[in-house]
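Per your request, structure below.
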């Protein structure tokens, strides 16, 4: 009989779900996979199952706009994302997988005096933490990004920008695949197509995770489910201050590369970059209503296209190729919620709004440390769920203006 050649599979065939694991991670996105990876790499913990109701990277990890940056407004946020950028810079080597990370600079445009003041405040916070971030004039924007129009004869003339040289974009699917491959190599089980349907608890402890493949128990259960976080936590009897909204984005047909910068405008509520494939990736702010709908809207396309054409009139004849929505789990202070909950053994990783993907590596490192040691690392201490009870919020609204 003729021998059939099967190309090498990237992951093992899923094993039968065992009845018990040391750690169960719900959500096979960038955060769940990164946490599993650092559990194995930094702590030698491999009796771990990742449960993904769809396929890995099907949620926010596969639907974001791939921007990596650390120019946040709060010291807590900026320090946290700075650590993430550092990990992303070494991640291709670490995972032995080309993630196509290009760091060519991120511009947050200012179109009013007030906006310049806000950008200046962000720059000062950033500089104190050693983050490369400064306010530049419209002329310098043009010098660094000659393709942009700085015409004053537009709805929102550019007055200046917050310039963050290390800002960049990365291939998001590659991040998911790179982590998954290493996780699999470490012997951690990735169960795709397995949905969590409920939990059992005894007093203040979680005792069982109910899934479509049977019930399991675990020492620690982490929910890393982005837009679905509040639904999951509700099942466990843990209320979260999270609402879910959608953010829309589209890509154009591919055109010859001419933009290697990321351009963001809080007032126009848009951001634009060109992907490695030549597509222009254009997104807007979060829609101002909670929903799980994955239907895009025409007003978004019309609005975003109108503004992008003021910045890049040379795109006027470029056609739209694809348009999608992603779920954003929004917290009241626009900062994430990570760590322990009132239910023993149940940890959350949520409230990421539109920032989750860029935080994946450092979230993985810190949550893995928390799971392994029981101690909350200092870097994520400010992002505890408890802050909503102790009135110690971390307001990141100023750095989120375009996407919230
Ligand atoms: O925070 O960089 C960001 C962002 C871009 C798109 C959505 N959020």
């Amino acid at each position: 009989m003729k021998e059939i050649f099967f190309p090498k599979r990237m992951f093992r065939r899923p094993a039968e779900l065992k009845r018990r694991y040391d750690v169960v991670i719900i959500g096979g996105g960038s955060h769940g996979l990164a946490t599993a990876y650092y559990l194995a790499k930094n702590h030698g913990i491999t009796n771990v199952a990742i449960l993904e109701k769809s396929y890995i990277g099907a949620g926010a990890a596969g639907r974001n706009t791939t921007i990596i940056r650390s120019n946040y407004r709060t010291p807590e946020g900026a320090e946290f994302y700075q650590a993430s950028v550092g990990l992303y810079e070494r991640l291709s080597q670490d995972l032995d997988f080309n993630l196509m990370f290009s760091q060519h600079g991120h511009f947050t445009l200012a179109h009013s005096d007030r906006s310049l003041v806000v950008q200046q405040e962000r720059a000062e916070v950033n500089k104190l933490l050693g983050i490369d971030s400064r306010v530049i004039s419209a002329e310098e924007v043009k010098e660094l990004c000659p393709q942009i129009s700085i015409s004053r004869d537009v709805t929102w003339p550019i007055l200046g920008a917050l310039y963050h040289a290390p800002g960049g974009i990365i291939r998001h699917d590659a991040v998911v695949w790179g982590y998954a491959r290493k996780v699999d190599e470490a012997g951690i089980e990735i169960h795709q197509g397995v949905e969590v349907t409920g939990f059992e608890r005894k007093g203040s402890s979680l005792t069982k995770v109910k899934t479509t493949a049977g019930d399991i128990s675990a020492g620690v259960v982490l929910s890393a489910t982005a837009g679905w976080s509040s639904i999951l936590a509700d099942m466990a009897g843990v209320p979260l201050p999270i609402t879910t909204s959608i953010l829309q984005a589209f890509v154009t047909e591919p055109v010859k590369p001419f933009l290697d910068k990321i351009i963001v405008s809080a007032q126009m509520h848009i951001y634009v970059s060109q992907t490695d494939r030549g597509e222009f990736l254009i997104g807007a702010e979060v829609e101002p209503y909670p929903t799980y709908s994955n239907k895009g809207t025409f007003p978004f396309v019309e609005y975003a296209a109108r503004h992008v054409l003021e910045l890049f009139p040379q795109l006027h004849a470029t056609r739209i190729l694809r348009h999608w929505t992603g779920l954003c789990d929004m917290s009241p202070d626009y900062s994430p919620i990570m760590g322990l909950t009132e239910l023993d053994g149940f940890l959350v990783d949520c409230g990421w709004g539109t920032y989750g993907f860029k935080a994946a590596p450092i979230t993985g490192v810190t949550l893995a440390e928390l799971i392994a040691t029981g101690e909350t690392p200092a870097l994520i201490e400010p992002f505890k769920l408890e802050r909503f009870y102790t009135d110690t919020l971390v307001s990141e609204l100023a750095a989120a203006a375009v996407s919230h």
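The chain has a mean pLDDT of 95.

Regards,
D.
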